[in-house]
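Sharing in case it's useful to others searching the archive later.

Someone asked me privately for the predicted structure of Peptide ABC transporter ATP-binding protein, so I'm posting the question and my answer publicly. Question first, with the sequence:
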Amino acid sequence: MTTVSPLLTVRGLHVTFPGRHGAPPSRAVDGVDLTVRPGEIVALVGESGCGKSTLARSLLGLVRPAAGRIEFAGRPLEYRSRALKAHRRRVQLVLQDPSGSLNPRHTVYEAVAEGLRVHGYAGDEKEAVTGALARAGLRPAERFLPRHPHELSGGQRQRVVIAGALVLSPDLLVADEPVASLDASVRGEILALLLRLRTELGLAALVVTHDLGLAWNAADRVAVMYLGRIVETGRVEQVLAAPRHPYTRALLSVLPDTPGDPVVLSGEPPDPSRVPSGCRFRPRCPVLASGAADRAGVADRCRTEDPALADGGGGVDVACHWAARA
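And my answer, the predicted structure tokens:
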């Protein structure tokens, strides 16, 4: 069996920001390993403030890491302006709020053509723009070219943003909460679009979201992030059907039609400038609070040792002392 080499590889990535008023640095991304293969959709899931968006921006070179390595198509990401420009042609970012991504004074044509002009496209610009709009589901494309963002629905604006990314024929889309601001009926259309683009173009995507339901419906693999680190990752049907990490279980418990009572986590996620000792999930962990970790003989390790991602069986990696023993 031939193993496909990853399109994107992240190893030991750390991104820090200076603390305010003498506080320690904020460890926004704190040792992340991640891969995305060609044509694969990976969902990066977690609560707000866990470092998902910072990680996404670091993949485009918009945030420079303090340590670690990002490789794309087997080559390390370089931070020279020419190298970054070439990288961003192949890796495109789609943001949550389409209204904020589009200049209200620009027509749809100008919005989609902007990337072509930045990168010095030498072909037929109008043909490239109309083709990208059609691939994004705006047909007939010519009808949308003269319109301004205020003349479009929220779903149409998001499709224009996606067309602006597709016009450069990238290999990877990094989509940061791409449906969070859309109505429920439109979310399904955008997710179906991502799946169709993967099928028709072989496009890979890293979809950043707090919504596990989105991950279930759109992704091939899921990576669950907590306080700057991936705590569970694997095939989406394996992770979401039988989650190992207590944090993943808590996130899943609030989805509709999930058996059992919702798991209510105590408190808020800790400040990333003050990551707890031992397991970073320890202060909110229901397994530790219930005594289950004591009964499994791992409570002391939970309090003193930060677990690394390890094989949890069935192709799932999990960073949890209790899950490794369960």
